[in-house]
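Narrative of activities, Objective 1.

The group set out to show that a structural description can be obtained from nothing but a protein's sequence at a throughput compatible with the screening campaign. Below is one input-output pair from the validation batch, recorded exactly as produced.
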Amino acid sequence: MMFAVAMTFIDQTIVSVAAPDIVRELGLSSSGMQWVVNAYLLSLAAFFALGGRLADLYGPRRVVVVGTLVFVLASVLCGCVPSGEYAQTWLIVFRAVQGLGAALLFPAALAVVVAVFPVERRGGALALFFGVSGALTAVGPLLGGWLTASWTWRAVFWVNVPVAVVALVLTAYARIADRRRTGTLDVPGAVLVAVGMGLSVLGFQQAWTWGWGNWATWLCIVGGLAVLYVFVRYERGVRHPLIDLRVFRDRAFAVDNAVLFFAMPAFVPVFFFSSVYAQVSLSASPNQAALFLLYFFVGFALASQWGGRILDKRGARPALKAGTAIGAVGFALWANELTNLSMHDQWPYAALAGAGIGFVLAPASTDAVNRAIGASYGEVTGITQTVRNYAASVGLAVFGTLLSRAMTENVTDTLRARGVSPSVADQVARGITDSVSGHGDAAPPTGTGQVAEATRDAMSAVRLDFAQANQWVFYGMAVALGVGFLCALRHPGDRRASEEPVPPAGPH
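Output recorded for this entry:
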């Protein structure tokens, strides 16, 4: 099952390193490229609870197989995206289908693990499952950098084919029993949560394009959050809910999810922003950008092991407090160092930031799942994974908007200092921002005249402008982890998991 979910975790990060090459070949905008990354995360969040429920109703083995087939078919189609005006839409749509496949696959695989291990061994098994699957995100940037540099960026999608084949063979060989549960599928709940998440993230993502003063921006954000509120109210009264929200009565579980919500905007989005930063501001190759992210994962891997030991001996509270505090300091120091434009001078801060995330991720996820057994495992897992992926989507959208705004302002100031009029400078700056996911100095503007000459002269300064814009993003990640630290202080610190399964849900 860990081999099966490897694809879903690798795909959270593998595309980020290939982003500049994808943008250059297909002509995507920077906002479009962010949607290519975000469509996967958003779809994963929106349909995760549905995947868990389908695994309960139709059996985990069957849903694992279906999820794997959907995922690998979408991966092949992503790699076959044609050039032209429909390239961006094609890639975003099939990235969303990938997310749907992952949403079917992951909870079903976890259900298999839960069914195989007895209660007294589930904690260790789940810690290993979450720890290994989380560490697999480290493979993404390295594999993506190597495939992009040595072959083609399309291979970052095609690499899922052999992995899926082996996963299907192993699933058949394991002879997994398909245990089904009675109940009905909460279709209205599934629609409400998908619409609510999709609308709210759309508003955050498009705020730069539409403007914060545009009614459409706030209609999407407020409307999406309102739909999510309706979803919560609806779930409290339905007999067989998509997500049993009563588990939030456990204070530790609520705190675990709050910490995950504020940690995830600093985890998955960092791969996109740091890899593009390395290739734009540091003029790094895809392979070098992948190695740049390796600093982050060295700290992440070491802290993950340490965090697991702390969880076993002292509970989740010490690990969550240490992780959020260390991560906030690490991201703040890293942000301060970005404008030095030196990859090797940044490694201590990248490693410190990774260590903070490593202390948080597995302990919070494992402690949350350990808060319920038996019939409530599916609901608990559905909530934690939905929170994680929705938070990552919101973080990528908000930070992407923040980056675009800061980048445009910086480039506008740079061009105005070279004699370009304010209106023209703003227009040119927006064009540079839209294409900034490619190498900043790879394609200098052509033509004659003051604007073209000033823009060509400014291309070296654009690298620094982009680094300064990224500082706002990394400081934002530090702030998010700081809020996570305040949440961690509310954790009760106990390590007990209820030995009584949660009874069937009903109107209450």
